[in-house]
């Protein structure tokens, strides 16, 4: 009897006896399709082909007994099964041809496929790991948890550094002017302020390394990792950065075993293909009644050997490992663009609270420096402060007097 097999390579067929077992089918696959038995995982569950961890999934264990007959599993002539396999194999090209054009020029099936875009998963991220400064991460999640109750979305731009191994450290989260709702996040970027943030970060040996945002409690019940709107917003930042190691992080509440809720961080990179498609304008926006876990494309693409205009967002995501670390900066000064806004009165309170520390440590806070940049020259004064902080050297007396004068005006 004929058994149809759908794998990542498309639809293929093998022939076995009517009384064949699962083991016999695996042997036929090994002989006909060059997939070793030890590398095979068969299932009637089509979710096998999009699972992030198919080998461990109990829902794909329906054909794991080699001695079971296919008939006992309800498998007969023409049944469609799904095949996952580890490793790689050489697939024989389809050479069927068809006349094309007025003069009958012949075109292979490979020619036709080449005319379309095939959506494929990216297995390995360029960002091998993402480590958050504990104070910076805590300041972000605490505000969202305690002040916003995860009821509206919040976002930020991550500043940090990357080493030769592709490991990214996040030491600062800058929060631009924004308006969050239950479903959306509108960033009203103040480019003058953001430029000052860039200069401060550069003086501290940092650069933009990623985008972070929260998901609301209402999103927790949805069956997606990122919505199509979140994919587009993340892709916009990634494309703008021109930075290979750019990361996207999400913060959300997850129910724990005791029925309570824990704050959870996850990190991803958008695939190279996703960013390129976004740059090329393939993503459609504002599609009525579209499931948020899907992205609608302007042109037809191939997903799992099927022509379609919609792509599951998970195809665009490459998971990144998360760690934490203790950086040299503090995050105890009020963060910009929150309510209530940071003021010089907050500066006075901050300096008083840390008066026992060396002066350079008292001002080793990105958000404090951003406030000071409203009053100091960003090109001459601020670099003097960031150099002192970066090298842990003394702050020039003149700048100490200026800062103390600002604080004492309240």
From TrEMBL:
SUPFAM superfamilies membership: Ubiquitin-like (SSF54236)
Classification via CDD domains: MPN_NPL4, Ubl_AtNPL4_like
Keywords: Phosphoprotein, Ubl conjugation pathway
Domain Nuclear pore localisation protein Npl4 ubiquitin-like as annotated: residue spans: 1-84
Gene Ontology MF terms in the entry: ubiquitin binding; ubiquitin protein ligase binding
Gene Ontology CC terms: nucleus
Pfam families: NPL4, UN_NPL4
Biological role stated in the UniProt entry: May be part of a complex that binds ubiquitinated proteins and that is necessary for the export of misfolded proteins from the ER to the cytoplasm, where they are degraded by the proteasome.
Protein name, entry field: MPN domain-containing protein
């Amino acid at each position: 009897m004929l058994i149809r097999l759908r794998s990542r390579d498309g639809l293929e067929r093998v022939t076995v006896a009517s009384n064949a077992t699962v083991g016999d089918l695996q042997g036929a696959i090994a002989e006909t399709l060059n997939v070793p038995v030890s590398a095979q995982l068969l299932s009637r569950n089509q979710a096998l082909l999009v699972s992030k961890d198919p080998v461990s999934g109990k829902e794909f264990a329906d054909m794991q007994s080699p001695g079971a007959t296919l008939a006992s599993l309800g498998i007969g002539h023409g049944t469609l099964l799904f095949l996952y396999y580890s490793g790689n194999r050489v697939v024989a090209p389809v050479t069927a041809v068809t006349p094309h054009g007025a003069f009958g020029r012949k075109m292979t099936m490979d020619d036709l496929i080449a005319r379309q875009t095939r959506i494929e998963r990216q297995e390995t991220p360029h960002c091998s790991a993402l480590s958050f400064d504990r104070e910076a991460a805590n300041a972000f999640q605490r505000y969202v948890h305690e002040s916003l109750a995860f009821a509206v979305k919040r976002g930020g731009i991550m500043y940090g550094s990357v080493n030769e191994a592709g490991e990214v450290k996040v030491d600062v989260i800058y929060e631009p002017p924004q308006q969050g709702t239950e479903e959306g996040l509108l960033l009203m970027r103040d480019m003058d302020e953001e430029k000052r943030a860039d200069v401060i970060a550069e003086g501290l040996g940092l650069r933009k390394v990623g985008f972070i945002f929260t998901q609301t409690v209402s999103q927790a019940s949805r069956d997606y990792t990122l919505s199509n709107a979140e994919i587009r917003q993340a892709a916009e930042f990634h494309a703008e950065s021109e930075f290979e190691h750019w990361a996207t992080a999400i913060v959300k509440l997850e129910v724990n075993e005791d029925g309570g809720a824990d704050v959870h961080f996850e990190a991803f990179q958008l695939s190279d293909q996703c960013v390129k498609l976004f740059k090329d304008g393939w993503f459609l926006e504002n599609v009525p009644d579209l499931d948020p876990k899907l992205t609608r494309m302007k042109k037809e693409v191939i997903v799992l050997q099927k022509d379609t205009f919609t792509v599951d967002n998970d195809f665009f995501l490459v998971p990144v490992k998360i760690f934490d670390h203790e950086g040299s900066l503090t995050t105890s000064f009020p963060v910009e663009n929150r309510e209530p806004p940071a003021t010089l009165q907050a500066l006075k309170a901050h300096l008083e609270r840390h008066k026992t520390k060396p002066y350079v440590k008292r001002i080793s806070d990105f958000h404090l420096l951003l406030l000071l940049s409203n009053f100091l020259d960003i090109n001459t004064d601020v670099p003097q402060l960031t150099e002192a902080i970066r090298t842990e050297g003394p702050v020039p007396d003149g700048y100490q007097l200026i800062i103390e004068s600002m604080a004492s005006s309240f």
